[in-house]
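Course assignment 3, question 2. Fill in each field.
Student: A.L.
Task: Predict the tertiary structure for the chain below.
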Amino acid sequence: MLNKYDVGIIGGGILGTSISYWLSTVSNLKTCVIEKESGVAQHASGRNTGVIHSPFYLDPQKKKTIARAAMVSRDLWKEFSIPRNIPWNECGTLEVALDESQHKTLEKYLKWGAQNGIPEDALELMDSSEVSKKEPNVQCNSGIYCSRDVSTDYGVMTGELYRYSKNHDVTFLFEHKMTRIENMDECVKLHFSNNSSIECKFVINCAGGHSLEIAKMFGLANEYSSLHFRGEYWIAEKKHENLVNTNVYSVAKFTNFPFLDPHWIKRADGTTEIGPNAVPVATPETYSGYVGNISDVVSKLGEILSGSSKKLLVNPEFLSLISKEWKSSLSKNTMIDRVKQFIPKINPDFFAKRGTSGIRTPLISKKGEFVPEILDLEGDNSFHILNYNSPGATGAPAYSALVVKKLQERGFLNLQKARESFWNFDKIIEQINL
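Answer field:
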């Protein structure tokens, strides 16, 4: 017998699982989560640095929604994590400027942080001597210290949310890889590689690196393309991991591109890593190797060169950046040299083992530019969340609540309180809409 659902959520990452949790508490809709892997959080949600980010570096005008979501969600995650013994290390973050030009960026960040709601006593602009007092092994022109930043484990968080959703009668269809869709009179029929199919009255697409591909199955987002970038890390040996006890980022040199210069990360398990670079790869799951399967690479490059995003490949600043990132992938010493700019005592011998790599998939517009914001698109019986990148994991509880509320207001979903929740849905919506 064919399984039929009111709502099908494509993607079992932290966003899809959070949406399933909210639907299970504020509605009686029969819901399923469709995931091509054998469990939740197998990709970006379980392969990130685990930092709860405070949005002092986000433009409050251009990125208001994700900034508000990150602000609101920080305390939601704290309420969720501590009683459940999920790692919660309030180590804080230093964002450092290496010259006077970058210092002006920090001054702008200080204003943005206040506009985004970060408490005044949680964000401090420091000169070089003040930074050195806090972290003697960090050298810079100046820095912003944010005490609210936390190291945690988003994979564990997603696993906990999965258990709650499952107990609330959400069905998780693991090892179900979508192959095609079939629009019917009052529903969508989804077909999978295991020769099964289901029917859903409404579909929510939050499939991370595959979300654009799925949106195009629904006839949407055809003017966009995407690229996959692998971020690689190196783990500090135990005797060197406390050289610096705070997360340390540097102001991005390439502000037009969605990449981070390598930074020093204190993970929730006590280890320390440096990274990432941003190496272009062929698929959202090419976690190792040079560039992945060569036929996939050729296919991807062919798509880009023949598409509206080909302008990106003639952008000299982008090509220069990619050349530098590729060199960092091939040479540990090159990455170390970049971190040495603000932690001069480190050397390659401190890092003998590679860390967990992750992949980010930014959208590219028809103008050949990276899309800076989350993009959500509505179909007749579907809703698609594209370009959901950092600090997406931080903002997931509040942003997923906002998605559910938005779908109710637009008449796609019928909501009524079904179960008690450990988070207050109405309060979150009020806070995020301030």
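Instructor remarks: The two ends are 47 Å apart (CA to CA). The first strand starts at residue 3 and ends at 10.
Grade: pending
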